[in-house]
Amino acid sequence: MLNHTRLKFADPKADAVELFALSADQLDAWSKDQPQTVRTWVDRHGFKAASGAVCTIPGEGGEVAMALAGLGDNKTRARERFVMATVASKLPKGNYKLASSHDIEDAEEHALAWLLSQYAFEIYRAQPPHEARLVCPEGVDKDKLEAIAAGEALTRDLINTPASDMGPDKLEDAATELAKAHGAQVKMITGDALLDQNFPMIHTVGRASATPPRLIDMTWGSEGPTLTLVGKGVCFDTGGLNIKPAGSMGLMKKDMGGAATVLGLAHMIMATGLKLRLRVLIPAVENSIDGSAYRPQDILTSRKGLTVEINNTDAEGRLVLADALALADETPPDLMICMATLTGAARVAVGPDIAPFFTDDTPLADALRNGARQARDPVWELPFHDPYETMIEPGIADLDNAPKGGFAGTITAALFLRRFVTDTSRFAHFDIYGWQPSPAHARPKGGVGMGARAILAALPKVLDL
What we know:
alpha/beta, Aminopeptidase, 2 domains, Leucine_aapep/pepB, EC 3.4.11.23, aminopeptidase
């Protein structure tokens, strides 16, 4: 899954057609500087620089001599990103180079959009490639953008693969392959060994599956600040004995989207050589049903010693994450980030396109917001609202995994996880969706990374790299 050869820039020494990326308000000024034949051609073809529009201008021999890409008007630009991906999919075969003047952030967006436009999920069926290639714009870090695109592609592939081929064992294989590619170390704790080593909630959630649960623990780097990424790896979620209806179960292959996202982010970090010490923890389970399945009203004792009353077996993600967070907290990193496809309430709050996050650290929140803007990777801060703490306290146990009433489900889930981190000042939790419900620029329908690029952009500020 790491072999994403399509997601590369063209050879900078190759002949390339000039591509002018123009907004609607730039078109007239550009046209005035062109020969009459070019102006006539553009006008006759009705090119108005609409978002994603393309116009190719032929040379004397019929070859493409020049190309125009539409970025839309100011309103369109404000609400759309990665328009250049749609342009790339429309252009004929060949190499192209941006001819317009852009600031570095715009050039990076256009270049990354182009790379992401080349993504195709090909595990089960070959997909015809887009054959237009881009020369990396001057001033843009080519290797970094290729690493980001490859990390995003890894995340998408992992999410898109059905549970028949992406169970806990196969997620382990993916982590092992990633570790091998970057010289990282990885170890697993599997099956009943989870009980022996005090990961009772990971074991309980996953024990009903034919594929044993496991904890994946990957480490990389020998110098610099410490960063721990924890990703929810529920490879399929039936809901357990509180079984989901068919309509809700259909997308549950993506319930390991947190794990897929932290693995993609880990690739970005390792491939770009950030000077930090990285740890990735993934509790990998399938929430299934058999005679050993855990039940509503069961009370579990977590690794940290906190007891949890089970009021819904479909709120399993916070259980497996709790044990992994408790392990991470035993050797506190400089920064801990948790990523999970955790609650439907998050989608009700912000929809499928935004990654909500929680943190008690204002500078960290500011860095994530700035990173999101820079990386065109939208995030939104939601509060760890302390008055809601009582909602996760059932009385019979320390914690309730599914408070009744349905209010503030995203916040109560985040508060639950925070209970397993001692020093929350350098902790952030992302409640992501991991799925693109309909095609958009650079984002085909299917699995998608959320928040990873924002985090990558924020790390140098947060960890003084």
